[in-house]
Amino acid sequence: MSRRPPVTTLFLREFCTKFETTGAVTPSTRYLARAITRHLRRRGPTPIRVLDCGPGTGAFTDRIVEHLRPGDVLDVVEINDAFVRMLQRRFATEPRWQAISDFTNIHNLPFQNFDAAEPYDFIISGLPHSNFPAITVAEILHSYTRLLKPGGALSYVEYLYLRQIRKTLSRGSERVRVSSVEQLMLSHMSEHQVTHESVLRNVPPARVHHLTAPAGGAGGNTGTDWNTLSA
Ligand SMILES: C[S@@+](CC[C@H](N)C(=O)[O-])C[C@H]1O[C@@H](n2cnc3c(N)ncnc32)[C@H](O)[C@@H]1O
């Protein structure tokens, strides 16, 4: 029988081999998981649709499963095959995860290529936006807008000071990329009601951004100028 690596070992291994997409050395803490699921915790009695983007080994998923019940839908979108295998194992073996496995779907593909028949009430994302080319960030933001219900909540993470440090230290094309990503994120935020909370008990310390889509619908416009973006 093959020996499987524990969650933190697997995460570190994937960070070393796939730095750009993994984006952190270790899974998020329970404090960050609690903060990012704040809106979900206040769900009402009607069935909900939840999208978990970039779950890695399942730090946020482990909180999400606590708040779901039969009739809900959970879609999980993860690009990394090793993380997908870990998630499949957790849904098959951990009792709290097993309880919702019948209405959970794991999708192994880049989030920006993911589509769904219906939009979601809650999108919870661990994607490391600041690592990606601007064109990828634009596609991801467009997907959030497309997949979030009017009045729905999108919550994602940004590591504290990382953006400022990168802006200060980077040069040339990397500096252009960092500025373009920042402009895209700010423009996308400006189309939503936004609240923020800092979580210091995480490695690295993080800030959670909670964005609420306008109740009338965002109309699929992210404010992105697609023509000015370079990879
Ligand atoms: C910073 S880790 C966060 C993992 C987990 N949510 C946590 O907080 O511990 C980023 C995760 O996003 C995944 N990822 C990166 N780019 C992705 C993409 N384009 N589509 C789907 N998943 C992606 C990575 O494989 C990784 O699991």
UniProtKB/TrEMBL annotation:
<keyword id="KW-0808">Transferase</keyword>
<dbReference type="GO" id="GO:0032259">
    <property type="term" value="P:methylation"/>
</dbReference>
<feature type="region of interest" description="Disordered">
    <location>
        <begin position="212"/>
        <end position="231"/>
    </location>
</feature>
<dbReference type="InterPro" id="IPR029063">
    <property type="entry name" value="SAM-dependent_MTases_sf"/>
</dbReference>
<keyword id="KW-0489">Methyltransferase</keyword>
<dbReference type="GO" id="GO:0043770">
    <property type="term" value="F:demethylmenaquinone methyltransferase activity"/>
</dbReference>
<keyword id="KW-0830">Ubiquinone</keyword>
<protein>
    <submittedName>
        <fullName>Ubiquinone/menaquinone biosynthesis C-methyltransferase UbiE</fullName>
        <ecNumber>2.1.1.163</ecNumber>
    </submittedName>
</protein>
<dbReference type="Pfam" id="PF13489">
    <property type="entry name" value="Methyltransf_23"/>
</dbReference>
